[in-house]
Amino acid sequence: MPSPAAVDQFPHRHLLGIEGLVPAEITYLLDRADSYVAQNRKVDKKLGLLRGRTQINLFFEASTRTRTSFELAGKRLGADVINMSVEGSSIKKGETLIDTAMTLNAMRPDVLVVRHPESGAVALLAQKVDCAVINGGDGSHEHPTQALLDALTIKRRKGHLDGLVVAICGDILHSRVARSNIQLLGIMGAQIRVVAPPTLLPPAADRLGVEVHHDMREGLAGCDIVMMLRLQSERMHGAFVPSLREYFRFYGLDAEKLAAAKPDALVLHPGPMNRGVEIDTDLADDIDRSAIAEQVEMGVAVRMACLETLAARS
After folding, report:
1. Structure confidence by residue, pLDDT tens digits, 213-225
2. Alpha-carbon span 156 to 132, nearest angstrom
3. pLDDT > 70: percent of the chain
4. Which value, in Å, is the radius of gyration of the alpha carbons in the chain?
5. Backbone angles phi, psi at 280, to 5 degrees
């Protein structure tokens, strides 16, 4: 059974975003996730903590990393995991989100993991069901488990989050990953910079509590962490960048631009990567500087921690 301590340490019914969490709650999730890293490296990875519990993954957007990671996390905890295909469901036949919520609620799941293209849709669904809901990414709003896995990756490499200088670079405007990371890293005491062309920054970006830079070398100067973001062309309606070639020239991460950061600066990317657009291939594959593969590993551990913690309340 899930630990009763989780109810005291994380007193939230759902995980819809990072906003509203306090440092102790984030630390609890990161510590639980850290304990699962070693478990996931064993030959026998399976536990029975969620035996008898049902987890439904409902993804309204295509996903490889997040959905697979949640599926693997649930199965390693012993849950019964069901992936619902929106393409073949009644949702495609015109069923509303509220009707979908009522249908799923009648099935009595314990945890529902939802990804949706519209900001706020996951929170709306959470109001209509009796089980725990985890936001697997909603529109350009939030992606809380991505921010948690990024934080765990950084913390394991650097030993702490407080006081680190983190540059988040690229398509800030459309990125739910950026928003969740700005929230989490700010809560945990990091200094955050955003680096992007003006067309890829949200209005009044400086009000997010970050330094704003338009030049990569200036933005990366003295940084501990360089977090690159994917150009989200599927959310772009209009010309946000002149060309991919021009974008890489000014905002793609390569060895020359990274030289402005600290010599031991760590490079992250939430994936999927557009090599030669957001990041140079050699740098992406540099095991000394890049933690991109490690982020994927940490994702399973973080999602196990979140599933176990929320299931304790169901």
Report:
1. 999 999 999 999 9
2. 28
3. 91
4. 19
5. -70, 140
Token representation of residue 201: 């920054």
What phi, psi does 137 have (nearest 5°)? Answer: 120, 120
Coil, helix or strand at residue 158: helix
**Predicted confidence band of residue 33 (pLDDT cuts 50, 70, 90):** very high
Contacts of 58 (CB under 8 A, 6+ apart): 84, 86, 100, 104, 112, 113, 114, 115
Instruction: For the beta carbon of residue 196, count every other beta carbon within 10 angstroms.
Output: 25
Tell me the Ramachandran region of residue 225: left when phi exceeds 0, alpha when psi lies from -120 to 50, beta otherwise. Answer: beta
CA–CA dist 15, 10 (Å, integer)? 10
* Max Cα distance, the chain (Å): 56
Bigger pLDDT: 163 or 203? 163
Residue closest to 90 by CA, chosen among 73, 80, 104 = 104
Is residue 10 within 8 A of residue 301, CB to CB? The reply is no
Q: Using CA atoms, how far apart are residues 85 and 232, in angstroms rounded to an integer?
A: 23
DSSP 263: T
Distances (CA, A) of 29 to 235, 284, 296: 31, 28, 17
Q: Distance between CA 84 and CA 122 in Å, rounded?
A: 15
3-state SS assignment for residue 232: coil
Angle between helices 144-158 and 176-187 (to 10 degrees): 50
